[in-house]
UniProtKB/TrEMBL annotation:
The lineage of its organism: Eukaryota, Metazoa, Chordata, Craniata, Vertebrata. Residues 1-38 are annotated as: Disordered. SUPFAM superfamilies: P-loop containing nucleoside triphosphate hydrolases. Pfam families: CMS1. InterPro entries: Cms1 (IPR032704), P-loop_NTPase (IPR027417). GO terms for cellular component: 90S preribosome; nucleus. It comes from Pomatostomus ruficeps. It comes from the Eukaryota. This is CMS1 protein.
Amino acid sequence: PTECFLSQPEEKQESTVKAKRRKKKKISDILQKSAPKPGVPADLQNLLTQHFGENRSVIEIEELKLSDSCFLPANDLTHSFSSYLKEICPKWAKLRRNHKEKKSLVMLVLCSSALRSLELIKSITAFKGDCRVLKLFAKHIKIKEQMNMLEKGVFHIGVGTPGRVKALVEQDGLCLDSTKYMILDWNWRDQKLRRMMDIPEV
């Protein structure tokens, strides 16, 4: 008897190489490649117009506009923080001596995180002289403690986050009437490579 061989259908070899998925470009990748640019007044002016543009009338937006005369020269990224402050505030020693008001600050520095605040506080030792610096962030410090400190003592510089500063102002713990300088930490990026202005809550 003749043997019958059944031809087995050839198994299709599974393509071992899967089609490579296209890697989605993340915002952090784009930001990583972008070099830091010195902040200019237009950056903040445009940001304010965008933010308030949706729910304010034209007249209200006009009133909110900050003219260029409100701004000091921005850090051109060649300065350290201390040398920048010395440039924009040459009469600091006199301002510091004359400041006697409680619940207020002469200079307010806003940055995006508590760790960054501590970094900046360390970096202004060459500038600050014998003035008192207050930490204005939420990490490990209760708002009541900060309010008590502001009420009892005279502080010259406050370094902190927008959220905590806003809360202190709203709760009448901080008065901005004698504040002469407000510094925005514009270019610094966090782990996700966001600047302070890229955080929606800010």
